[in-house]
Amino acid sequence: MDIKHFILLNWIWIGIALIIFPILFKITVPYGRHSKRSWGAMTGNRLGWILMESTSLLVFSICFLWNGFIHGLASWLFFAVWLIHYINRSYVFPSRLMTKGKKMPLAIMFMAILFNFMNGFLNGYFQGNLSNYSPEWFYSPQFISGSMIFTLGMMINMQSDSILISLRKNNSNGYFIPYGKMFRYISCPNHFGEIIEWAGFAVMTWSLPGLAFFIWTVVNLMPRSLDHHRWYKREFQDYPKNRKALIPFIL
Ligand SMILES: NC(=O)c1ccc[n+]([C@@H]2O[C@H](COP(=O)([O-])OP(=O)(O)OC[C@H]3O[C@@H](n4cnc5c(N)ncnc54)[C@H](OP(=O)(O)O)[C@@H]3O)[C@@H](O)[C@H]2O)c1
Question: Which of 42, 153, 206, 248 is the most exposed place for a label (fewest CB within 10 A)?
Answer without folding.
Answer: 248
